[in-house]
Amino acid sequence: ERALQEASECSFRLAPAGQILATNPHTRKQFGWRAEDPLPTLTSITVGPVAALEAKLADAAKSAHVLHLKQLHLRLPAHADAESRVLELNAHLQRMPGARESVALMLSGSDQAALLRRQRKLRSRNQRLESIYQNHTAALLLFRDSDGQVLDCNPAASELLGYDLKTLTTASGAAQRLWSSELERQSADEQLAANGVLLGLRATLRHADGHPIAAELDLSAIEVSGETCTLLCGRDLSDQLQTEERLRNSEAKFQHMFQSSPDAITIIRARDGQFMEVNPAAGTLLGYPRGALIGRSCFDSDFNPFTIEAQTLFEATDAETSR
Hints:
The chain is α+β, with helices and mostly antiparallel strands. It has twelve helices and twelve strands.
C-alpha cells in the first residue's frame, strides 16, 4: 500500500473484475478524482474493446507472473475548458503478495489528446479530398512510371476510357496502352521528365472498344510510397472539337456568301467609321481596292467616299448604340 501511494506514475489496486479498490494521489490528480469520490471500474474508463483487458485481469489474479498490457487507452474526464482527453499507456499487471483478490496495475504513458485531434483533422481532410477525387468531373488516373501499372482512378476516368477500376488496376502496363499513338506517349514522357509537369497537352487516347478519344491532358510527376508516379487529369474534347468544326464550317459558309454576293457589303465600326471588312462588290461600287479601304475611316477628311448625309447617319447610329 505504501508503494502504491508513493508511486509517481498512475497506479491502481484492482479487483479481478476491474473495480478500482485503491489508487494514489498522482492518479487522482490526473483523472480529477476527489478523495471522497467513488472509484470507477477500469473498464468504464477504457477506450475501445475491453474483453482482452478483462481476460488479462483474471489471469493476473491467478498468476504470480507479471503480465504486460501495451497501448491501454484510458479516457480522462472532460473539464469545462477542455475536451475529453485520452491517455495511451503501457501497463504491468501483477498479483499483490498475500492478496488473492487484488491486482496491482502500474501504468506509464502520455496524454494523447493533441495526437488524437491531429488524427481527427487528418481523417476529416482525407475524407474531403476523397470526396473531391471521386466526384471530380475530369478523369483522374494515377499510375506508376516504372511499369505503367494503374494504381487508382476516379469514376470519371472509368467512364471516359470505358474500363472499370478493377480492370485498370489489375492489367499490367494498362496506362501505356491507353495512348493511341506511341510517339505521343513517348513525347509526353520526355516533356514530363524534363519539367515535372505538363499542362494542356492535346492527345488521342484509346477507348476500351478501340475508338479514339480526343482529350486535353494535364500530367504531374509525383512520388507515392517512394516510387515515381504520374497523376493524369484528362478532359474529353470530343464535343468541343465538334463545336469548333461546326463554327469553322459556318464561318466558311458566311465568308463564301460575303465574298460572292453581288450586293456591296461593308462592315464598319460605328465609333470611328473604320472599315473592318468589305466584299469585292463594295470595292467596285466605291472605286477602291480592298487594301485601300481596310483600316481607313470613312470619316477621314481626305478620304470620304460617303456623302455628308451618310456620315450623319453613322453618327446617329453610334449615339443610339451608346445609349
